[in-house]
Structure formats: C-alpha cells, structure tokens
Amino acid sequence: YQRRVHGVEDEQAKLDQIHESYAEQYNILKMKLQKEIQGLEQQLEEMRALYQLNAEKLEYNLRVLSERVKENEKAIQHHKRKLARLQDVLSGLITKYADTEKKFRLENNILTDQYRRITEQFKDLQLKFQYFEKADIEKFKKVWEMNEDEAMELVNQCVKADRVIFEQQLGAEWKPPPMNFWLDVETLEETEKKVVEEEQEEHPEEEKELSDMAKKMLDMLCEQCGFLVEEKVLRMIERFEEEEKGPKKIESILRALGVENQSDIVKMLQFFQRPVETDDGELGVDLIDYQDAIVALRHFIDYQTKNASLQTSKKNQMASHEERLKEKRKREEREFWKRMASVIPERNFRLWTALERGLEKYIVLLQDRSKLIEETDAIRHQNDELRALLNQYMNSKINEELFSPPQLAVQQG
Fold first, then answer.
1. d(Cα 70, Cα 199) in Å, to the nearest integer?
2. Which residues contact 80 (CB under 8 A, 6 or more apart)?
3. Alpha carbon of 182 to those of 151, 179, 337: distances in Å?
4. Residue 92, Ramachandran bin (φ over 0: left; ψ between -120 and 50: alpha; else beta)
5. Per-residue DSSP letters for 140-208?
6. What burial class does residue 340 get, using C-beta atoms within 10 Å of its C-beta: 0-12 exposed, 13-18 middle, 19+ buried?
7. Cβ neighbourhood burial of 339 (10 Å; 0-12, 13-18, 19+)
8. DSSP output for 32-63
9. Measured between alpha carbons, how far is 292 from 298 in angstroms, rounded to an integer?
10. Torsion of CA 220, 225, 226, 229, to 10 degrees
11. Are 183 and 335 in contact (CB under 8 A)?
C-alpha cells in the first residue's frame, strides 16, 4: 500500500512538473498568439480601410467611366453623322476626281500631240535653220571674197600710188607696207578644226551596228519594262505588224529612258552585264537574269541622273567655247578691215596731204601762167593785126592826096 502511495505521489509529482513545464509553454504560446491576433486585427483594420478606399475609387471610376460612356456614345453618334457626311463628300470627290482625271487625261493627250507636233516643227525648223545657215555662210564667204578682192585691188592701187609718190614725185626711198592682214588666222582655224573634230567624235555621222549582247538586252527591256510605254503608244503599236511591234516598243522605251544614241546604249549595257567564268576557266561577261532587269535599270537611271548635270555643263562649256571662237573670229575680221584700211601709215597720209596742197598751189600757179600766156598770145595777135592794119593805112594811095600824110607825121614824130 505504501508502495502504491509512493508511486501515486511520484506520479503526482511528475504530473505537477509536467503541468508547470506546459504552463510556461502555454503562456509563451498564448502571448505569441495574442500578438499574432493583434497583428491580424491591425491588418484587418488596414484591409478594411484599403477596401473602403478602393471601393470609393471604384465608385468614382465607375461614375467617370459612365460619363465617358455617355460622352463616347455622343461622340460615336457625332462621328457616325460625320462619317455619313464625309462619305457623301468622298463620293462627290470621287466623281469630281473621275471627271477631273478624264478632263486632264484629255488635256494631256492634246498637249502630248501638240508637244510632238511642236517637236517635229522644231526639228524641221532646225533642219531649215541649218540649211539656211549653211547657205548664208556660203553667201557670206562669196561676198567676203568679192569684197576682199575689191578691197585688195584698192589696197594695191593705194600702195602703187604711194610708191609713185615717193619714188617719182618726192624722189625718196619707198618701203613696202606689210600685206599680212590676218595675224592669228592660222591659230583660229586650227582651233575651229579641233572643235569640229570633237563634235564629230561626240556625234558620229555613221553609227556602227549593235552587238548581239546589246540586241539581247533590248529584247530583255522590251519584255520586262513594257510599263514604260504609254497607253496611246501601245494602241498605235498594235496597228503595226508583228515584225514591227518589237522595234517600235523598244524605241518608245529608249525614248522614255532618255537614251538618244548608241553610246548611251553601250553605257546601259554595262549595267546589264555580270562576270561569268567560261569553260576554259577564263573570266568573261554575260547578261544578267531577267528578274534583275528592273534593278539594273534603276542603277542606270541613277547613273544618268548623276551625269546629267555633268553633260549639261560640258555642253554649256562647248557652247561657250564656240561663242568665244565666234567672237574672236568677229574681232579678227574687224581687225582685218582695220589693218587693210590702215595699210598706208598716217605719216604717209600727212605727206600725201602736204604734197596735195603743194600740187594744188602749183596747179593754181600753172593755171595762172596759162591764163597769162593766153592773154599774151591774144595781145600779140591784136598787135599783129593792128600793125598789119597800120601798114595798110600807111601804104594806101589816098595818103598822097592829103596835105599832111601819116607817113610825114610819123617821120616828124
């Protein structure tokens, strides 16, 4: 029994010990849980406040969105009315555009015809101008040669007169004047020949036949670049036979690209070539593929655009050079006539004038002497007549019948 009592007491002591240890853990856990409860309650209050705030924000946003929906509905109605009005305006503009396009297409066709007609007239006028210019140049040369021959005859007469005056009238030594009236004519003619040769090189009269590769390139252009041909030209080409359609189409394409001569075709061919390796292992050239024709054509157009200004400046330089040559030629012609007009020096002219004055005085003196001689001859003739008449009176028989005859008076006198 005592053992049992001791066992119960031991067990009771263990239970008390366990209760004490768990009481401490319970208090610690209780304090921890209370702190967590307080934190959660605080979070709950914060969440409630946040919820309230979000609820107010959402209500405000809802009201704003409701207002915006109303405004958007009004804007949608306004835009619908505006869209309907713009559709009406668009349909009117489309109709007006179609009419305007038709009108301007008609004007474009008319202007194109006028341009071509004026171009043909201008070409004809150029040909006529060249013909008349050539005829005028020939006529000018003939008139020039005729006047030059007449002027040279007058110059030779003046030179001969100057020589006669110096050698025969003055007895002085005579030096012939320089007769080369064209000083820079050789240099001028050489320069004109060079200009003509350069023009002939740039615009050769006889063009060589195109190579096979160039012909293939033109066929490629005809097949790939048909969009460059105008509709009106296409309608005109359709009237030709099949053999003539291709060349006419190629001609229209080249005209649209600004290609005027074979040198431009040769330049274009360089953009349509690519390097290839032959069977012998050598490097050669061949035409590009048909699908690359548009790219090569674009590169050629860029090249033409870049070099257009250079060609224009070169043409302007050639034109200005020709103008300078013409001006130089005119100056030389004026100097030619001036030198021809001054073939007799001013000193000789003054000598001629002095000699002329002296000769005029000498002529007046000779004329006076001639008049005096004539008067002397007339008086001498009158004296002879009077002497003969006096002798006749003196020898007359009637004097013998007079008381005082004339002979006696003469003897007494």
1. 81
2. none
3. 14, 9, 10
4. alpha
5. HHHHHHHHHHHHHHHHHHHHHHHHHIIIIIS-----PPP----SSHHHHHHHHHHHHHHHHHHS-SSPP
6. middle
7. middle
8. HHHHHHHHHHHHHHHHHHHHHHHHHHHHHHHH
9. 10
10. -120
11. yes
Lowest mean pLDDT among 36-45, 47-56, 63-72, 325-334: 325-334
Of residues 207 and 131, more confidently modeled: 131
DSSP code for 398: G
- According to the model, what pLDDT value does residue 188 have? 45
At which residue do the structure tokens 């006419």 appear?
Answer: 248
> Which whole-number Å values give the CA distances from 72 to 7, 76, 105, 285, in the listed order?
90, 6, 45, 68
Helix, strand, coil proportions of the chain in percent (round to 5)? 85, 0, 15
Q: Tens digit of pLDDT for each residue in 342-390? A: 777 777 778 788 888 888 888 999 999 999 999 999 999 999 998 888 7
Residue 309's pLDDT band (boundaries 50, 70, 90)? Answer: low
- Closest C-alpha to 230, from 350, 109, 363: 109
How far, in Å, CA of 309 to CA of 64, rounded?
Answer: 65
Token pair belonging to 86: 């713009």
Round the CA-based radius of gyration of the chain to a whole number and report it: 64
What is residue 205's predicted lDDT score, i.e. its pLDDT? 42
Residue 340 near residue 156, CB atoms below 8 Å: no
The secondary structure of 4-36 as a DSSP string is HHHHHHHHHHHHHHHHHHHHHHHHHHHHHHHHH
Rounded CA-CA distance 379/371 in Å is 12
CB atoms closer than 10 angstroms to residue 222: 19
- Rounded to an integer, the average pLDDT of 309-331 is 68
Per-residue tokens: 411: 């003897």
pLDDT class of 171 with cuts at 50, 70, 90: confident
